[in-house]
Design brief:
single chain, 224 residues, mainly alpha, MetI-like fold, 83% helix, flat
Length: 224
Amino acid sequence: MLQIINTYGPMLLLALGQTLLLALCGLFFGCILGVIFGLASVVDNKVSRAISKIYVNLIRGVPMIVLAFFVFYGIPYGLRTLIGTKFTFSALQAGTICLAVNCGAYMSEIIRAGIQSIDPGQMEAARSLGLSYWRSMFRVVLPQAIKNMIPSIVNQFIITLKDTSILSVIGFPELVNKAQNVIAITFMSFQTWAIVAVMYLVVILLLQQVANALERRLSRDRQK
């Protein structure tokens, strides 16, 4: 095990950095999609609510590995077939899209629940002051809802971080992909996976501590 750490430790640490980068990109764009579809699910419009529900149910019903193959291989193949373009995604682009679309479906539900956790009287009070619906939503309701959503968002980041391991199938140089390369060279499967497991565990435990601290802070704020 020490031989692997000494020889391949820097490469695995770099791969961990790539993993965190991909997870952050996926969460960032996933939050954007989550806000769009989360808001669409609470407005008084049947069409937007139906679109949001279809998106959430569709994406949550498709395994991540299928989504990864569809984005990385399926979409470029479809474009080549339809319009003859040689367009392709890089592994980072495909991975970010895959994680963002998947994360966005779950973030949509987090945002919907966060908005619905706010007393409807807040919206009514803002509207009575002459604010439009959307201005009331973005200036009054969402800022309060986001405080309630922060622990759930951190937990979603942890889930997204774990999901990056699936993207080794499309060749993105994240931690699992590099671990497979190390095993192919050293034939030390047990030791390599043990090191990778510890690396994931350390990062995820730190993130869980952040989520717990935020949750305790929010609980104290509510009691004041």
